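Cross-posted from the bioinformatics board.
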Amino acid sequence: MTSQNPLLKGNAIIGQSGGPTAVINQSLVGVVEGLSGSPCIEKIFGAHHAVSGIIKNDFIELQDIPHDRLDRIAKTPSAALGSSRDKPDAEYCKKIFDVLAKRNVRYFFYIGGNDSSDTCRIVNELARKNKYDLRSFHVPKTIDNDLVNNDHTPGFASAAKFVAHAFIGDNLDNRSLPGIKINIIMGRHAGFLTAASMLARQHDDDGPHLIYVPEAAFDIDQFKADVAEIYGRLGRCLIAVSEGIHNHEGTPIMTQLAANVEKDAHGNVQLSGTGALGDYLSEVLKEHLGTDTRIRADTFGYLQRCFAGCVSQTDAHEARLAGRKAAELALSGERDGSIAIQRVSNNPYEVEYKRIELTDVAAKTQTLDPKYIVHGNNIDPSFRDYLGPLVGELPIVELLRAR
Amino acid sequence: MTSQNPLLKGNAIIGQSGGPTAVINQSLVGVVEGLSGSPCIEKIFGAHHAVSGIIKNDFIELQDIPHDRLDRIAKTPSAALGSSRDKPDAEYCKKIFDVLAKRNVRYFFYIGGNDSSDTCRIVNELARKNKYDLRSFHVPKTIDNDLVNNDHTPGFASAAKFVAHAFIGDNLDNRSLPGIKINIIMGRHAGFLTAASMLARQHDDDGPHLIYVPEAAFDIDQFKADVAEIYGRLGRCLIAVSEGIHNHEGTPIMTQLAANVEKDAHGNVQLSGTGALGDYLSEVLKEHLGTDTRIRADTFGYLQRCFAGCVSQTDAHEARLAGRKAAELALSGERDGSIAIQRVSNNPYEVEYKRIELTDVAAKTQTLDPKYIVHGNNIDPSFRDYLGPLVGELPIVELLRAR
């Protein structure tokens, strides 16, 4: 809905929330660039560590940073403002408003995933209720790629590029010293990032040979049979497993393993930052196939979300433009919304940046289209048509002999 | 020692052994290029999976591969011939000789680390004993950088570049969501790769804040105190830990953890391909600092040795030239040796490729110069002078605020 007051003057606040990505600073700089030069904008406050910085009045002023420094910040991975996993409740939001009102903040931009878009929604609704004229925009960001009404989200393609590079190398490593190799990839409810491992396939028997995503129930007996079949046939087996895999009852395998499960403010169980799932699956396979079988597990962990020097240029570009679009819409009189990246065509690849309602994205989870999931243990080749343009060119593998 | 027969005609065998690297194919292609066009060389046999391929008569002919395909192979990570961890004993070597003699193989090149150079030495000595005119050369390769009489070894710089990139990203990740983060890095006896994490430091309080290498005894109580001090001061702590850390008695911490320790043919304990060490150190810190402290551990595992697209150009170049040098020496009449990379000057950076005796490198382990190890928990800034030229330029980090 368009605001009654298109020339709303005041200050702006920008926050970066949730898990950082390799391109989240592109979106930050995009918003700053989009606001710069507008007669409506006085100061641009960067909230240090997101909402927690707002209620502590901890801000970094962004309006006077020279263009070349902004550009270096944009290219630096992770959240330059600092992040937070706080989920504001009514009381928390009241504190935020005290700060907004005191500082005459009229433009609020929150860069983050679905938890963050929900925070943005809550802040926005409180503003409406208090008849405080605020323009609230959510800028998408998540390596999980799990925002609804988006073709994909900034941060995902760079993480996917990391996963593809890692699997290209690890598939060749596994060829040279054959055995069973399990790689655990981030993704609580959505298997997009785990599915990205399929980009590593260039030759007939390239791994990953098996891919397990949270969208399909994980059956440990089926897993053992799947691996035994591939290993028996190829003499090696490379496996991509999402950290969020769960059993038929929907209980994450990780929860079954952990005696004392750590949870964050959103009630999410800690899945990353531990090798427990990979080690458990290794043990299961050793019991099944014998301890003389070479079985290894790696957990990609935090490396995959902020790795320097492995950024998708498409991702960097789109993250920047998503930030700019939010600023432009806010300045043009739109009151609130979330920026959604939607694909217009695939050949040539082209996207548009659309405003959608905050309620259309907040706290909802997009998952992999079932058409991409094959037999619950693999990803269809057509997923490459979706993902390829986002990740860009990958190193070419030349083999001396396939096996 | 120079051979009596400078124009020795016959076939060549090349093998790639041990853990693969991102540039081991550069050395393979370097040897092939160095041999190509010589009237002494008839066929060039690539041993499929190293010595195990020789005794199985499993070879890939390399003499007719076009230059452009060779170049693509050189740029492909991991061992294109396949690798092996077999350690030939007298009986095994006898089988190798039967194959060498039958095939009129007069040139033997073995690309690998210190276990592999020892294999090369054994094969060479058996040839001398049997008065079989064989030219045997070891071409260095190891991400561990632990060969004596070498300034550094091919494969190390690319792995170090990966570690530096990972730490640049992870340090920024840890800034944005502060807590304690442990990263486990490969290195059984030598801490070079773990020490490479120091390249990620660009600003005063950048991590890694603590670096533990196998060259210094690891004391768990000192570790807890070290982390508590940094965490108390900075509100975060990024830690690099070598997988090979051991206690004052010399027992690896990993050995103490594992109930059933897996060993390879060289008697080495399995350190990689499990998150056990990182998870153990996390638990120790949680007990010490309280479970509400955010503590995470990642184990870089196999990602660091063959990651595609993160190759040091210096490393790639040197690996190629080391292979060529071995071929040139063999063709010029030298009977045996290992190629050692030695630094001539640091500014401008310049190296030479010298022939050293196989016995001067075989089965010996180079470790970090004690001058680089500070208080048993850090690496001196001067290590950057040694490592910087090998890794090359790294992404520049621009911060909005240091803390």
